[in-house]
Amino acid sequence: MKAYEILMDLSLIMISAKLMGLFARKIKAPMVVGEIIAGVIIGPCVLNILQPSEYLSIFSEIGVILIMFSAGLETNLQELKKSGLIACIIACVGVFVPLICGAALYTAFYGFDGFGSEKFFKALFIGCIMTATSVGITVEALKEMGVLKGRVGQTILSAAIIDDIIGIVVLTFVLSMKDPSSKMSVVTLKVVGFLAASFVLGFVIYKVFKYIDDKHPHTRRIPIIALSLCFILAYVAEEFFGIADITGAYIAGIILCNVRDAEYIDRKVNVNGYMFFAPIFFVCIGLKTSFKGMNSEIIIFSLAFVAVAMLSKLVGCGLISKCFKFRNIDCIKIGAGMMTRGEVALIITNKGLSMGVIPADYSTAVILLIIVSSIVTPVFLKFLYSKAPDTAPTAE
């Protein structure tokens, strides 16, 4: 392919992503849903105008790194500290229950060949996809109702943030275990080593960056240095620790989330991410979606996948909330608020597709889950709050 021919592909992706994104927002669905559907329409599934390619995969990878860096920058460490132990325990259960349920669902459909087998890793990966919570839709719904600052709203928000951190760590473990030469002890050592190195170096980097930011506030060099740090940590994570590059990008965002210009950095990064790289990532998910292998079994599995993914969050997070003296209906609110899936589920799915852990058929189940959970969750929360209002502020 000649260099200039790429330009037509990129323009097609940008236009189709924007049009379908606006359409999705019009019908109260997340814009990412529209962007994914744009990829399905222009890809091999429908019009077959555009095919997945190596250069699109590279752009897509940069897109997902920027998304995770931005997610790290937007993490509110003060809110995490405030909600503390309760949100952390809810998040842990909110990861563990879907992980087990997802693995059990795959095993029930396709059997089990023993630990370390191909089916074992596929089952684990299906569980991994179910662990992620997308808090964006929930936050918008709670904001509209004016209850985001209530005890329940703040618990959902904090638990969802911690949930994603734990989900990424779990993904790192599973992907590392996929390497035939890996042993559990080595994998654990790599993950612990990376997190320890990130903590120590992160403190030093934060202090240095804070000094630069204080001396040259709101200058272009700030987001440029921040973006360089993001790419360096993403590279180091994958190259030296065998950990997913997105984990390094996320850690980079968390390191810088408390500097004075964190919001400014995020805004500048989003110019590239939101306008260019992120749409390519979401459209590429659609391009990789395949209906060729679709049969009645895959369809039934997809429907079961959606039901189990939503119920496992509802039941897991809801039941554990009861231990912290929430009312029964508030426990259901917390479980319902954790049901939505979005970008992180797509990121995990994309990792599985690129590494050959799962076939493209299963991306259909994930897209279906995102669409259904994004529509059902706000409606369900509105119903629950109409039955039992909660506007009490979070306890200090």
From TrEMBL:
The keyword Transport applies. Pfam families: Na_H_Exchanger. Residues 15-384 form the Cation/H+ exchanger transmembrane domain. The chain crosses the membrane at residues 31-49, 55-73, 85-108, 120-142, 154-175, 187-209, 221-237, 271-291, 297-320, 365-385. It comes from the Bacteria. GO terms for cellular component: membrane. Keywords: Antiport, Ion transport, Membrane, Sodium, Sodium transport, Transmembrane, Transmembrane helix, Transport. It is a multi-pass membrane protein. GO terms for molecular function: antiporter activity. The keyword Transmembrane helix applies. GO terms for biological process: proton transmembrane transport; sodium ion transport. PANTHER family: NAPA-TYPE SODIUM/HYDROGEN ANTIPORTER (PTHR43562), SODIUM ION_PROTON EXCHANGER (EUROFUNG) (PTHR43562:SF3). This is Sodium/hydrogen exchanger. It comes from Ruminococcus albus (strain ATCC 27210 / DSM 20455 / JCM 14654 / NCDO 2250 / 7).
